[in-house]
Structures are given as C-alpha cells and as structure tokens.
C-alpha cells in the first residue's frame, strides 16, 4: 500500500500556483494537507497491527450477537454471514466487531478491489469530503462527476467506439439504462437475448433477464427474453471448435428467424460472474456479435463484475471484440456505475436522468481506482493478476492432491463432467470441491468464514467457491495463510 497523497479530484485541480477561487484555496491549503496526513497516519498505525486471521474475543461475543440481532431486525431476516466490521482493515485483512480478523477474499463481491484501509484511497476520500454537497445529480454537479467519466472514456476509447458515459448509483441501474438505450434505438423491437445462467441485477426488469427463477418469484413477467447457452470449452473440444461455433450460430438464428426484427439487443457477459466464472472464447464471441450486427441487434457488453480483473482492463479488449460493442456497463470496483455507448446509441433527451448519479466520495475514489489500474503493473500475461491466478491455482491443486476425497469428479447436467477443479481468470477465481454440490458448497463457505477466510459461491450446477480478492494490494506470499484457513474450513465441511 502507498501513502502518496493524490491530487484533488475536484474542479479546482486545474488551478495554477496561485489559487483563484475559494475552492482552489481550500484544496491548496497546507492545513488541509496536514490534517489528512495526520488522519491517514493514525489509521495506518491501527491497520498495521493486523497480520493474520484470528478468532473473536470471547468478551465481545454477547455484544456482537446483540448487534447481529439488531441488524437482522432491520433487514427482516438474519444476515447470510455474521459480518459486521469495525471500519479498520489492512489489505485483505479486516477486523470485525467481535474482535476477529478475517482474510477478505470476496471484497463485497468485488467492490473493494483495493482492499481495506488503503492509505492512498483514504487520503483520496478524505479530500473528496471537502465538497459542498454529499450527492451530485443531473441538474447540479461539480466536475468530479465528469472527471470520472472522462477518465473512464479515455481508457475505453482505446479499443472500442464507446464515446459517451452516463453515471448511476448501482449496477442494476446501469443495466436498466443500457436496455433503455437499446430499446429506444431499435424501437419497436422489445425482445432481449441473454446467456443461460446470466445475472443482471435485481430490479424488476433485470430480475426477469437474469436466469435465476428465485430472483423473480412473484414478479410479473413483462420482458421477453431468449436464452443462449454460454460457451462450453469441454463441448467445444469434443465437437471441434468450428462445429461448436456453427451450432451456436444455428441456435441464435432460430430466435432471429422466429421473431424477425423483434430483438433490441443481445446482452453479452464475456465472462460470467454469478453464473460460475465461466470464460468466453474470442472466436465464438466474435462470430455471435457479427450475426447481431448483420441483423441490426445491439451488442451490449456487461462487465460490471469482470471489469479490471482479467489480463486486460476491459474484457472486450482481452477478447479483441471492442469494435462490435454498442453499449457497455461497468460498476463494482469503480465505485461509480456507468453506462457507456457509441455515438449511434446516444439517446434522446429525457431517456436517462435521475436525482442522484453518485457522491463526491465515490467519484473521487472511482477516478483514483481507474488511475491506479491504468498506471500499475497488473495486466498482460506477466502482470500481477495473471501471476496471482497462478498462485491461487497452485494452492488449490496442492490441496486437492493432499485431500483427494474432497475433490470428486465435478457433476454436470448429464453426469460427471471433464472439468478442471480450478476456473476463472485473473482476479476472478473459483474452485470446485465436493463435486459442485450446492448444499455442501454453501456449508463450506460458512465453515471457511468461521476459520478466518471470507468467500462466496457461484454457478448453477455445478456450484463453486469463488474469490474476488483485492489483488492490487495482496501479497502473494500470503496465499499460504489463506489456504491454511481454507483447509481447516473444508475439513469441517467434509466431516
């Protein structure tokens, strides 16, 4: 972690050596810089005391259980994990209110990619708090709002035709804006094509597009969705890749011919998140996108979970399909969510709006995330993310060799599947114990939590244990400590 003090993310960042406005003077104040430095130093001293996972303090057990009950009463049901933080952490380590310390290898399902207590991010957000308002919107906003969009677009334009960005406060809202843009462009077309096992969010529309029945129970079905199988590397190898791609095109054409000129868009998850960290294939994606272009169907790329985590910043860049993308969504690690689109998909006035688009703190933090991703040594086959995935895979393989009974053949829909027990790419990591059995995977996640490492599950049969670790601030030497917790947790789950 770095203690460098980032520059102001405000509209006053352009100021010369002699500040002109009161805002310029505030951000240039030595007293402000000294105060931030003092606060960051105090925090860093506390975070430095966290070195490994540890159990909770028995003296705090009763008060922690009382907090958990209060949280459950507010929510209407108990929390999935008994996680209530104190606000102190360091990298992948986080302190909970019962005094325990956990290895956080899921980071809020990928939101906190720079971990806990990162001093650079702390300084950034403290300075952002000097803003005159908490929230920004379409009617009134400081330039922080547009600086984030400007920074994101400068990177996105390198390998795509994306040229405009509209910001929002959640990934589901970014996706809602994307589908509206597609509907308006291709009106009156109203159907959507999506991949099996996709996840789009939990709004009324997105819960209908997402391929999980539990997420739309009781919701009136008003969105017309056609589902395509996602890329299956095992099937492609057995059939031959060309035949497999031809079969996928045939499948897509069945929908296009059955509902001529009725599809507004095809929502592409180039790498599926909730669906199981399933990784697409460049030739397969390119061919399907070419079919969409030939039939005037928008190509909508959802990278809300995978953005920044592959061997390239954008997944469309990794697969070299950016030239086909019409609409693009990003969120999670960027702190601010956004819908990007090409000039042809720039919507008419009134379609996209909202009282809130985000706050000063997430705008500044999101901009800093983008800058650090851009300027770091994270990407490429020799970058940190690829190397970290290699370390992860090595530890899973060693664990499976030591405890083969925990890793039986992975069960697919038609029996045992020839599938590696390790999957994903870069900072999207998953492994498959217990044959991918849902009940056993869920129990394993909770046992791992008890033993000091926070993970989550993904997939739809088989199910997997997934990690979205804070790789930019994670020391690869700590994988051994993490997997010591994993081994203890899986031992409990196996028994």
Cα separation of the termini? 39 Å
Q: Uncertain spans, ≥5 residues at pLDDT below 50?
A: 1-16
Structural class, judged by helices and strands?
A: alpha/beta
Number of strands: 19
- On the 0 to 100 scale, the average pLDDT is 94
CATH architecture of the largest domain: 3-Layer(aba) Sandwich
The general outline is globular
Number of helices: 16
Q: Name the assembly state.
A: single chain
In percent terms, what proportion of residues is strand?
Answer: 15-25%
Main sheet makeup: 7 strands, mixed
Quote the CATH topology of the largest domain: Aspartate Aminotransferase, domain 2
Question: How many structural domains?
Answer: 2
Cα-atom radius of gyration? 23 Å
CATH class of the largest domain: Alpha Beta
- Strand arrangement within the widest β-sheet reads 5-11-10-9-8-6-7
Q: What would you give as the CATH superfamily of the largest domain?
A: Type I PLP-dependent aspartate aminotransferase-like (Major domain)
Can you give the helix content as a percent range? Answer: 25-40%
Q: Characteristics of this structure?
A:
Aspartate Aminotransferase, domain 1, 2 domains, 39% helix, seven-stranded mixed β-sheet, 495 residues, Aspartate Aminotransferase, domain 2, alpha/beta, disordered N terminus, 19 strands
What do you see in this structure?
The chain is of the alpha/beta class and 495 residues long. It folds into two domains: 50-110 and 382-495, Aspartate Aminotransferase, domain 1 (Alpha-Beta Complex); 135-375, 3-Layer(aba) Sandwich (Aspartate Aminotransferase, domain 2), CATH 3.40.640. The chain contains 16 helices and 19 strands. A seven-stranded mixed beta sheet has the order 5-11-10-9-8-6-7, sandwiched between helices. A hairpin with a 2-residue loop joins strand 1 (85-90) and strand 2 (93-96). The chain is globular. It starts with 21 loop residues before the first helix and ends with a helix.
């Amino acid at each position: 972690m770095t203690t460098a003090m980032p520059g102001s993310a405000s509209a006053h960042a352009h100021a010369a050596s002699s500040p002109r406005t009161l805002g310029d003077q505030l951000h240039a104040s030595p007293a402000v810089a000294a105060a931030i430095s003092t606060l960051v130093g105090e925090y860093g001293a506390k975070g430095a005391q966290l070195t490994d996972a540890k159990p909770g303090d028995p003296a705090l057990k009763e008060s922690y259980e009382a907090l958990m009950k209060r949280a459950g009463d507010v929510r209407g049901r108990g929390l999935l994990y008994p996680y209530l933080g104190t606000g102190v952490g360091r990298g992948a380590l986080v302190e909970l209110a019962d005094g325990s310390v956990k290895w956080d290898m899921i980071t809020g399902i990928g939101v906190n990619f720079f971990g806990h207590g990162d001093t650079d991010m702390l300084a950034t957000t403290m300075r952002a708090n000097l803003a005159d308002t908490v929230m920004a919107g379409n009617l009134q906003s400081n330039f922080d709002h547009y600086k984030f969009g400007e920074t994101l677009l400068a990177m996105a334009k390198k390998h795509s035709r994306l040229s405009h960005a509209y910001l929002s406060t959640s990934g589901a809202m970014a996706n809602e804006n994307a589908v509206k843009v597609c509907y308006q462009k291709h009106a009156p077309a109203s159907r959507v094509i999506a991949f099996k096992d996709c996840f789009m969010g939990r709004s009324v529309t997105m819960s209908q597009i997402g391929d999980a029945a539990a997420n739309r129970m009781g919701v009136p079905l008003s969105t017309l969705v056609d589902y395509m199988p996602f890329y299956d590397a095992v099937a492609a190898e057995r059939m031959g890749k060309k035949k497999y791609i031809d079969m996928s095109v045939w499948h897509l054409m069945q929908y296009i011919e059955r509902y001529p000129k009725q599809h507004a868009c095809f929502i592409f998850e180039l790498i599926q998140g909730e669906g199981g960290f399933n990784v697409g294939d460049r030739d397969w994606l390119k061919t399907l996108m070419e079919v969409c272009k030939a039939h005037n169907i928008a190509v909508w790329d959802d990278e809300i979970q995978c953005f920044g985590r592959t061997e390239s910043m954008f997944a469309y860049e990794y697969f070299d399909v950016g030239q086909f993308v019409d609409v693009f969504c990003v969120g999670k690690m960027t702190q601010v969510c956004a819908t990007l689109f090409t000039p042809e998909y720039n919507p008419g006035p009134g379609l996209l709006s909202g009282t809130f688009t985000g706050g000063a703190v997430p705008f500044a933090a999101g901009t800093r995330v983008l800058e650090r991703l851009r300027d770091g040594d994270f990407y490429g086959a020799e970058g940190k993310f690829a190397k970290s995935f290699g370390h992860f895979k090595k530890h899973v393989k060693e664990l499976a060799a030591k405890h083969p009974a925990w890793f039986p053949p992975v069960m697919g829909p038609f029996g045992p599947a020839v599938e590696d027990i390790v999957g994903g790419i870069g900072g999207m990591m998953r492994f498959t114990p217990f044959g991918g059995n849902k009940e056993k995977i869920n129990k394993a996640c909770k046992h791992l939590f008890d033993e000091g490492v926070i993970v989550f599950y993904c997939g739809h049969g088989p199910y997997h244990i997934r990690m979205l670790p804070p790789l930019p601030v994670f020391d690869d030497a700590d994988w051994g400590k993490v997997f010591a917790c994993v081994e203890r947790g899986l031992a409990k789950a196996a028994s």
